[in-house]
Amino acid sequence: MYGGGMRTLPTVLASVILAGVLGVPEPPRVTAVTPSPIVASANPQSLGVDGTGFAAGLSVEVMFQGNTEVYSGAAIKGRSATSFAVDVVLSQPGDATLIVRNTDGGVSDPFPLKVQAGPTGQPERRPTRPTIDRVAPDKVGKSSVPQALTLSGNNFAAGLTVSITDPTGSVTVLKGTALDAVTPVMVRFSFVLDVPGEYTVAVTNPPGQMSNTVTINVS
Predict the structure, then answer these.
(1) Rounded CA separation 183/89 (Å)
(2) Domain limits for position 42
(3) CB count in 10 Å sphere of residue 110
């Protein structure tokens, strides 16, 4: 079970008996959410939810700063009738609320969440997306010999890959020692441009941020 919040036995029994008498399922009830407080992050983080009446197929609604995000399906993990985990994104400090909604229409009362800033006083930031300003040369003649190419731009990270799509749609990925040089503002490599037409080039940094594309015209 996630967290330590529990309903007292008399309360649980009363809810079960009442549900049985009325012939309707017990609505979900949230008693605790961990961690508490939550540290703001731009990346998904797992929250443990404790309570009762959590049914298969449930969804979670998180209301924060006037917006409502709905999480369901694969975002709900390890569900039982009394606990589950859910991956949510809370990127700014502040107050939020969480409710659980079962497929039969049962809805929990809003449960308050406190989101606080990280140690630096600012929420976690995603790595910056790389940007290609230009490729040199951008016009070349076809050749079976590798030709030197240079990408100029910003936010190029060590360990990046270069994806080259030729005029036939075939994609080649260069990385590691296949790249001659990598700096934050420049990437240099050699490549065989032996098919006339338009080649497109893009850069992907190690965390997965992909750049814009630039074009090389081969005649």
Answers:
(1) 32
(2) 9-16+25-116
(3) 13
pTM of this prediction? Answer: 0.46
Distance of alpha carbon 154 from alpha carbon 165, whole angstroms: 21
pLDDT of residue 1: 43
Residue 151 tokens read as 């990408």
Please report which residue ranges of 33-85 form alpha helices under DSSP H.
none
Could you give the CA distance from residue 55 to residue 80 in angstroms, rounded to a whole number? Answer: 8
CATH number of the domain enclosing 152: 2.60.40.1220
Amino acid letter, residue 61: E
pLDDT means per 10 residues in the chain (219 residues)?
46 49 76 88 84 94 90 86 87 93 95 84 61 93 95 91 94 93 93 96 87 93
Q: What is the pLDDT of residue 5?
A: 43
The reported pLDDT for the residue numbered 16 is 47
Q: Do 32 and 111 belong together in one domain?
A: yes
User: Three-state SS across 84-145?
Assistant: EEEEEEECCCEEEEEEEECCCCCECCCEEEEEECCCCCCCCCCCCCCEEEEEECCEECCCCC
